[in-house]
Amino acid sequence: MPHKHTLALISLLFGLSFAVEAIEEAPSLSMPLACTIGVDCFIQNYVDDDTSAQYGDYRCGFLSYDGHRGTDFRPKSMNAIAAGVAVLAAADGKVRAIRDGMEDISVRVLGKQALQGRDAGNSVVIVHGNDWETQYAHMKKGSVVVHAGQMVTRGTVLGQVGLSGNTEFPHVHFEVRHHGKAVDPFVGVSGGDACSLGKQPLWSEDTVHKIGYIPSGILAAGFTDHPLAAGEEVAEFMTLPSDAPVLGFWLMAFGVQAADTQLIDLLAPNGKLLLHKAIPIDHNMAQYRFFVGIKRRGNFWPTGEYRATYQLIRQKQVDPVLTKQFSLRVF
């Protein structure tokens, strides 16, 4: 009979071998969207890695919500979404299932009951072997260009970003599953230190460097001639006519935190300060939109270039977390 220490060593080696094999079985993933993180797209929500009734992303931030199983990639510009942002296969595989034909309508308008369990909207599921699969959800109606049974390679266009299914904003929900269980691609199957990237993330080495964690950012901004109603969709206009009744500025940010302060200044073409506004944030929000503006007092606004400056101030940080200037041409 082998010595007990020998048996223990054999057991340990077998366990290590099994762990390495499990890691090797996992697909190496690339970006599922044709965009650049931090430039023309952002990650709005991560997998909820908190197993309690609370929620949290892999960096112990709050860019998630309770029970969220995927990673939400969101294009920055509504104009780009209208033109079409491609959804890409993250790894080689075989298409297991698709759905297309659902309308691009916010669930706030459509209502959850109308979905009839089709929360993923227009979507594609790809199997990668060893019981790994990826899903690409909420795609644009009529954009899915692959079919069940089709072999695809990394980077194959599957469709376009849309607003179908259980969602309130255009994005692709990218979900990775192993044996039917969701896996956070930033953590992988081997775990790692708390509040950091996993020891063996599922992203390819090249992709890891492209998708660094961004806790806060500006999603969209623009000017408008009227106050915005809650939930009102608005284009990113950077021009207004001189007879506009209101000179308004709006901005949508993600990752604003309790005790943050947003500072907004509106300046006339001659540099005169038209408006200064400080907006305090009283709780963490994955997404937040504000509107500020002033009414026209005369018959016309002076023509020329107006400027809006935005800063996001965070407690205990010397420099602003976000700062950006926007220009408006009044004609």
Characterize this entry briefly.
The protein is mostly beta strands.
SSE diagram, text form:
Layout: H1 4-25, E1 41-45, E2 71-75, H2 78-83, E3 86-88, E4 93-99, H3 107-110, E5 122-129, E6 132-139, E7 151-152, E8 157-160, E9 172-178, E10 181-182, H4 205-208, E11 217-224, E12 239-240, E13 246-256, E14 261-267, E15 273-280, E16 285-295, E17 304-313, E18 322-330
Parallel strand pairs: 12-18
Antiparallel strand pairs: 1-2, 2-9, 3-8, 4-5, 4-7, 5-6, 6-9, 9-10, 11-13, 13-16, 14-15, 14-17, 17-18
| Distance separating the two termini | 92 Å
Residue share in β-strands: 35-45%
What is the succession of H and E elements?
A: HEEHEEHEEEEEEHEEEEEEEE
Write down the CATH class of the largest domain.
Mainly Beta
Which residues sit in consecutive blocks of at least 5 with pLDDT less than 50? 1-22
Structural class comes to mainly beta
| CATH architecture annotation name of the largest domain | Distorted Sandwich
| Average pLDDT over all residues | 90
Fraction of residues in helices?
A: 10-25%
* E-strand count: 18
Structure description:
With 331 residues, the protein is mainly β. It has 2 domains: 27-208, Glucose Permease (Domain IIA); 217-330, Immunoglobulins (Immunoglobulin-like, Sandwich). It is built from 4 helices and 18 strands. It has helices spanning 4-25, 78-83, 107-110, 205-208, and strands at 41-45, 71-75, 86-88, 93-99, 122-129, 132-139, 151-152, 157-160, 172-178, 181-182, 217-224, 239-240, 246-256, 261-267, 273-280, 285-295, 304-313, 322-330. The strands form 4 sheets. Strands 1, 2, 4, 5, 6, 7, 9 and 10 form an 8-stranded antiparallel beta sheet that branches. A hairpin with a 2-residue loop joins strand 9 (172-178) and strand 10. The radius of gyration is 24 Å and the shape is globular. The N and C termini lie far apart (92 Å).
